[in-house]
Specification:
Layout: H1 2-19, H2 24-39, H3 44-49, H4 61-73, H5 77-82, H6 88-92, H7 101-111, H8 116-124, H9 135-152, E1 156-157, H10 158-176, E2 181-183, H11 185-188, E3 193-194, E4 197-201, H12 206-214, E5 219-225, E6 229-234, E7 238-244, H13 250-256, H14 261-273, E8 276-279, E9 282-285, E10 288-291, H15 296-301, H16 317-322, E11 337-341, H17 352-361, E12 366-369, H18 384-400, E13 405-413, H19 424-427, E14 432-436, H20 445-456, E15 463-464, H21 482-492, E16 495-499, H22 509-518, E17 522-525, H23 537-546, H24 560-568
Parallel strand pairs: 4-7, 11-12, 12-13, 13-14, 14-15, 15-16, 16-17
Antiparallel strand pairs: 1-3, 2-4, 5-6, 6-7, 8-9, 9-10
Helix pairs in contact: 1-2, 1-7, 10-12, 20-21, 22-23
């Protein structure tokens, strides 16, 4: 559970060093370490105990030493040294989306600003506009960043909460012997951001469950511990609340603590019309309890099909359940490949062969290598000469791989006019082309919409990557008319990406459902830059499920041969 703490520490160290104007290579090394640790599925303490820190792709000697130091002492001396002279309130300003450390350093130097209240005052009275490189637009971005920061307080994104909850639940089940332990709330609905993590449990020994929970590895503070409830703070500052219920009420409680407020109110209204009462203790007909041990009891008794947790938002799922027309949602087991993975040819940390082997271990039939194109120089994007060399390497690797195919792809930049960053001569050599916007996010709605439509009209493009450009809690979607974009995708038979990277989750569930209604296929890509990010396919599938998607709606469910046929239709 120290993964997040270390990731946060290295990200903060990079911010402080950038604020101080230190070496960019050192800064980037810390940011890279932060990304790797933040996405690592293994427990970093267990990796360290095995002496395998340097086996983590992208972790070198220096970072490994700092990780080891932190795990042993709770501190990193280089971090303590770096933060000298930079106050805590000033460091806290580095959390504001859109306010980079360099800009903060300028504001601090020129205006003496060192806390949030001073910054808010300066944003309101326009005293920042005259600073070099600022202007009205940048000040407006800072103002919006402050709003985003305040909105996200006490919230965490799905990619942070899901692996923590999964690890806690699995550990509790193993140590207590109870299989009826599950996360609930908005996390079970797999919303893109949640508050606290809620866990529901039952078993023969309630005391043992509570005791085990409050003494899990990584628990920093016990907030409360009673006969049926407990709350703890774990590494990374996350709060987890546990509720233990009687076994004959477990299903009712799980339903009660999972559905959204609107979903549950709708259900209770249906129940009242039948003179039935439902609550966290069970289902009652007058005074007689008629169900509640199993979650499915509630929906069955109310005359409807079982509703998957991800759908419980009161967006028509109750009516569909009553009319026996709920979709059979896609499952992660249906996924046959990942459409968006980076290798060390651009800014990934692993070789193409290492990526392929990892994909095989996940049971995939194929993987698509989508390294950046030449315009994205910061990501060491491939020009056409290097792209040809990569294609040749993939061909060599495919000759020795059995029952698996590496597909030749690219994540090509959509230029400001909607052109693509590689020539059609180069693109036609590829199996798969995903095109994404990586710059010029401030174009107005009309220009951005036209830009993306122009790209979709290119005959060699297969998928529009992270279509709205958002970063959860850090950057709003760019201004674009998604209705027109989706109409164009439908017209030309293009797919839209669910970018499963935890900070994106783009498309969102609302646009996924709209794509389904319009008959537009969706492609899920993890946008992995190292192997420990490939688990995020779980997040992409969760978004698809929240968007009512079935296997027929998602390209990743096609076999290799079916997929190649789809490619050749383009």
């Amino acid at each position: 559970m120290k993964n997040k703490e270390l990731a946060d520490l290295f990200e903060r160290m990079a911010d402080i060093l950038e604020f101080k104007g230190e070496n960019p290579f050192k800064i980037n090394a810390y940011r890279k370490a932060s990304r790797i640790l933040g996405d690592l599925t293994q427990d970093i303490e267990e990796v360290a105990e095995r002496g395998e820190l340097k086996k983590i792709s992208g972790i070198g000697e220096g970072i490994a030493q700092k990780i080891d130091e932190y795990l042993k002492t709770g501190k990193v001396s280089k971090f303590e040294e770096a933060r000298k002279g930079v106050g805590d309130e000033l460091i806290a300003l580095m959390d504001i989306p859109g306010l980079g450390p360099k800009t903060l350093a300028l504001i601090h130097k020129e205006k003496g600003i060192k806390n949030l209240s001073q910054l808010e005052k300066a944003v309101v009275d326009d005293s920042l506009i005259s600073l070099p490189g600022m202007g009205e637009k940048k000040v407006e971005n800072i103002k919006r960043g402050i709003q985003l920061l305040k909105q996200s307080k006490g919230r965490m994104n799905l990619g942070m909460a899901f692996p923590v909850a999964k690890r806690v639940v699995e550990t509790l089940r193993k140590k207590t012997g109870s299989e009826k332990i599950e996360w609930a709330g908005s996390l079970r609905r797999m919303r893109e951001n949640i508050g606290d993590i809620d866990i529901l449990a039952t078993g023969t020994n309630h005391e043992k469950i509570i005791e085990t929970f409050t003494h899990l590895p990584g628990v920093k503070e016990i907030l409360a511990s009673g006969e049926t409830k407990a709350s703890v703070i774990v590494e990374g500052g996350l709060q987890i609340d546990l509720r233990v219920v009687e076994e004959n009420s477990y299903g009712a409680a799980l339903q009660y603590f999972t559905g959204s407020k609107a979903h549950n109110i709708h259900l209770r209204g249906i129940a009242r019309a039948r003179e039935i009462k439902i609550n966290e203790y069970g289902v009652f007909k007058r005074e007689k309890k008629i169900g509640g041990k199993e979650e499915k009891d509630i929906y069955r008794i109310l005359g409807m099909d079982w509703i998957e947790p991800e759908l419980r938002e009161d967006r028509g799922e109750i009516e569909a359940a009553q009319e026996k027309r709920l979709p059979k949602l896609i499952e992660e087991a249906d996924i046959k490949g990942d459409f968006h993975v980076h290798s060390n040819w651009s800014d990934g940390s692993s070789s193409i062969e290492e990526v392929a082997r990892a994909a095989q271990q996940k049971g995939y039939q194929y993987i698509v290598i989508c390294d950046h194109s030449q315009s994205l120089k910061i990501a060491h994007g491939l020009d056409e000469t290097r792209l040809i060399k990569q294609i040749e390497e993939i061909d060599r690797l495919n000759e020795k791989l059995k029952n698996f195919r590496i597909l030749k792809g690219t994540e090509v930049d959509i230029l400001s006019d909607g052109g693509l960053d590689l020539s059609e001569k180069a693109l036609e050599k590829l199996d798969f082309v995903v095109a994404s916007v990586h710059s010029g996010f401030k174009q107005d709605r009309e220009r951005m919409t036209k830009r993306i439509i122009n790209a979709l009209e290119n005959p060699y493009l297969h998928v529009l990557g992270h279509p709205t450009g958002r970063l959860l809690g850090a950057r709003d979607p760019y201004e674009v008319e998604m209705g027109e974009v989706m109409e164009t995708a439908k017209k030309y038979g293009k797919a839209l990406e669910i970018n499963a990277y935890s900070e994106r989750l783009d498309l969102d569930d609302i646009h996924c459902r709209k794509a389904k209604e319009m008959g537009i296929r969706v492609a899920i890509g993890t946008d992995s830059h190292h192997l420990d990010q490939m688990w995020m396919m779980s997040l992409g599938v969760a978004v698809a499920r929240r968007g009512w998607l079935e296997t027929k709606d998602v390209l990743n469910t096609l076999s290799l041969q079916e997929l190649l046929k789809w490619f050749h239709k383009k």
